[in-house]
């Protein structure tokens, strides 16, 4: 767990005075389907995913973050960070201390890249695309590095991989053109501007490309205690919590179909023609 000096360094996330009574009365449009969303409650800004291990990593914050849930598609979200700049995200969430509350392996520090779960996941994804190494371009969206550990797993499997990190890595290359596979692993929950997200995927995913999505999908209808989920964690930047209908609403608007299979959740316009073990022809 985090030590006292680290907690002192993290400090308060914001000094904004959040008046919860106003949120209860505010009308909010869903970011996925534009239907009416209802206020479901608040979380303190220091709630972390790692708290699920049984002990809080950070003290309770007096900054309160409101969340809403859509009755039409089940999307759960906050608008707390909607006006933040990229610099705000870098300094308030994805700062040097972010790694402390998001260790590669809980309880271990300085894990070699090739021993991380993310690297293993890259190798796993590569196994489903085996045979297409010479045919496809891959974009690691939300890479966490240039390359990140997942991207390195794909590179080590012989794939041509570009990295893109919206907030955390300034040196990541900007995407150019269209990609045959866009891998988005544990990143959609961090995205607050969903119009920009769907437009990005619509612009950069090739006609028969594959969008590989990994984010924890919550049940729909939304349970009353949804904010007790370990995954709804503002200090980790988890500001958008999806359901399968919510993903479908968001990406259908740009012509991308969403399906859930035994392998995972995927988006595509036309079934990919390059070799893969996901869609068999």
UniProtKB/TrEMBL annotation:
Which Gene3D superfamilies does this entry report, sorted A to Z?
Vaccinia Virus protein VP39
User: Per UniProt, which keywords does this protein have?
Assistant: Methyltransferase, Transferase
Q: Which GO terms describe its molecular function?
A: methyltransferase activity
Q: Which GO terms describe its biological process?
A: methylation
UniProt-listed Pfam families: Methyltransf_23 (PF13489)
Name by which UniProt lists this protein: Class I SAM-dependent methyltransferase
- In its UniProt entry, the species of origin is given as Azospirillum lipoferum
């Amino acid at each position: 767990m985090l030590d006292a000096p680290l907690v002192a360094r993290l400090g308060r996330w914001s000094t904004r005075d959040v008046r919860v009574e106003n949120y209860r009365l505010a009308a909010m449009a869903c970011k996925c389907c534009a239907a009416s969303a209802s206020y479901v409650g608040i979380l303190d800004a220091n709630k972390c995913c790692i708290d699920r291990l049984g002990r809080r990593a950070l003290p309770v914050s007096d900054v309160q973050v409101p969340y809403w849930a859509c009755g039409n598609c089940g999307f759960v979200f906050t608008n707390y960070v909607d006006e933040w700049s990229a610099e705000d995200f870098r300094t308030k969430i994805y700062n040097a201390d972010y790694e402390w509350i998001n260790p590669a392996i809980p309880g271990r520090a300085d894990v070699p890249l090739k021993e991380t779960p993310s690297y293993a996941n890259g190798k796993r994804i590569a196994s489903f695309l085996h045979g297409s190494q010479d045919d496809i371009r891959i974009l690691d969206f939300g890479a966490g590095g240039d390359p990140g550990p997942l991207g390195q797993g794909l590179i080590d499997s012989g794939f041509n991989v570009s990295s893109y990190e919206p907030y955390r890595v300034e040196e990541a290359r900007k995407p150019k053109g269209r990609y045959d596979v866009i891998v988005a692993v544990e990143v959609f929950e961090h995205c607050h501007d969903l119009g920009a997200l769907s437009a990005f995927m619509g612009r950069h995913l090739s006609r028969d490309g594959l969008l590989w999505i990994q984010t924890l999908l919550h049940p729909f209808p939304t349970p009353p205690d949804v904010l007790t989920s370990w995954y709804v964690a503002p200090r980790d930047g988890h500001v958008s919590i999806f359901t399968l209908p919510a993903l479908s609403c968001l990406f259908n608007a740009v012509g991308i179909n969403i399906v859930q299979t035994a392998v995972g959740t995927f988006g595509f316009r036309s079934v990919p023609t390059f070799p893969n073990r996901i869609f068999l022809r």
